Amino acid sequence: MFVDSVHRYDVIFGTKNELLCDEPSAEIRTEWRRTDGSDLPSGSSQHNGLLTIEPTGYDAEGHYECVAHAPESTTQTVVVRVVLKVIVPPRITFSLSPPMSKVRPGDKVAIMCNVSGDQPFLVSWHKANSESLPARVTVNGQYLEFPWISKEDEGRYICRASNRAGNATRTAEIKFRSKI
């Protein structure tokens, strides 16, 4: 039996992924290999037709095939072909302009939700506790912009980023120091 279809799977970077190649006969042994002959990815192991990759790194991306070995035979039969694409969920860091330690009431402030991972991203901002954003505050792409910041703007603001690999959230807190 020769298989000509290829199954394509997106696998998430840093997670455990498994590929199962199961044959109905107990006498037939199956194993996974890369179609280009290179080594299986780091962190991988296989047992009884189950290829486990943990954690999944970029080196897991590529073309694989499961082959069956019949007892008393030197021939190998390709059972299934698979292509893995490693995708990365979003990660968030913040950039603040100007730095928070220098912000005074009345200043123009922008918080950037820096997102890394696989594109495209969907980025949104909201205030903690389901509060709506203050009316004068605007969202401009990845930026949360305060045209003039005031004590009423204190609170926690949440950036949410999503892509086909997952979601991430990060909270920025605006807090003015009391004068001593």
UniProtKB/TrEMBL annotation:
Q: Which GO terms describe its cellular component?
A: axon; plasma membrane
State any GO BP term from the record: dendrite self-avoidance
A Pfam family recorded for this sequence: Ig_3
**Keywords tagged on the record:** Immunoglobulin domain
Q: Does the keyword Endoplasmic reticulum apply?
A: no
| Classification via PROSITE patterns | IG_LIKE
Output the superkingdom of the source species.
Eukaryota
Q: Which ranges carry the Ig-like domain?
A: 14-79, 90-175
What Gene Ontology terms describe what this protein does at the molecular function level? cell-cell adhesion mediator activity
InterPro entries recorded? Ig-like_dom, Ig-like_dom_sf, Ig-like_fold, Ig_sub, Ig_sub2
Stated name of the protein:
Perlecan
Q: Gene name, please?
A: 6035747
